[in-house]
Amino acid sequence: MHEGPTSLSVLALGERYRAGELDPVEVTEAYLGAAEAHPQGELIYRTLTAARARRQAQEASRLFRAGVDTGPLQGVPLAVKDLFDMEGEVSAAGSRVLLEERPPAEQDAPVVARLDAAGAVFLGRTNMTELAFSGIGINPHFGTPGCARDGSRVPGGSSSGTAVAVARGLAAAGLGSDTGGSVRIPAAVNGIVGLKTTDGRIPTEGAVALSTTLDTVGPLARDVDDAWALYLAMLAEPYRELPEPPERLVLLAPPTVLQEDLDPEVETAFLAALQRLERSGCEVRRADLPVLAEVAELYRRYGSFASFEAFALYQEVLERRGGDMDARVVERILQVAERPAADYIRLGYARAALRRRFWPELAGVDAVVAPTLAVLPPRIEALAEDRDYFRANGRMLRNTTVFNVLASPAASVPGDDTPDGLSVGLMIATRPGEEALALGIARRFALAGID
Fold this sequence. Notes:
Blueprint: H1 10-18, H2 24-37, H3 41-44, E1 45-48, H4 50-65, E2 77-81, H5 96-101, H6 110-117, E3 121-126, H7 160-167, E4 173-178, H8 184-190, E5 193-196, E6 216-221, H9 224-235, E7 250-252, H10 264-279, E8 283-285, H11 291-302, H12 305-321, H13 327-334, H14 341-358, E9 367-371, H15 386-405, E10 410-414, E11 425-429, H16 435-448
Parallel strand pairs: 2-3, 2-4, 7-8, 7-9
Antiparallel strand pairs: 1-3, 4-6, 5-6, 5-10, 9-11, 10-11
């Protein structure tokens, strides 16, 4: 377990800075040293950006001494998923081909620039699934960091390195992206908090695209309050405390799709989570929600947004160098190569119709709750065969993808651990624009679990 300044939450670290008990320069050096010394450091970070981190830490320290406070991220070391542009760095997106062929970025992506303006320190660029196209987290080019709870198991994808860095004390918090679950899945697997944000809420410019329709940006953090602080900075909004949700909340826990075919340990932890929510004062309703089956059916009928849009974006690269890319990612993209364009258009129409229906049909319900994942993370060695890999990938993505299709924000917060010490996440999904409510419910849930 990490100790010393690297064990502190974002907000606790800020308190120590402002009390003069710690300095951003020494904390940054502690994090860089921990990353360099960690046996999986090179699997978690594709590259450390130590020179920039030291400059940022020195500037944060100078501002503290001058009495200038830029907010809770001032001097806080973060991990950045390797698909966000950072000036002078190549955004490889988990791909050796992109690393070799893309030029260094001329400027920071807008969300990265916002975090820089908030005073954050960028430790490095974290490993990820190639092109962000998997919920598993395996990368055949740069290696796969093991799950923070059990190194023999997958880390969850696609924001694998960021989540493991945060969970293992190699970053105070991190920046990820979520197209089908890529923030929430690794958050659940590694026992931390992740937030999928509302479509379009945070700019995706300057990020290597997978799906121009579904890509979103979100934080990964050790607790809910840290995720909120990072989220506000990503919005370029001044810090304010996370508002308390209404005292009486109605939550729906639908068996439809989201509770089907659960691993026994996941089911046990989820039932315990529902009891904890009820103890915290929430009304939990258990009722079927047939529209969820329609959402789940969309991709089977028409193909996925990610496959269609990645094929349009990367067809030329695949034709030239597909053999140098993750064969499983390539296969998923090429699944739609022979589909008619009309299927893509029908997919968009069907999604829009479901979005118009979903929340209006849930009048009086504040949020939907479900297990973040239906399954525990599989062992890496168990996925050597493509058949096993694709089956596991589908099962890991099933619950999270629903809310990407619906464009809703959704938080994953750790629930009870399994007897073997694995983490089981609780997902809380709210109406578009209600990130504060999702995180507020997540905090109430977390506090209800403290003895």
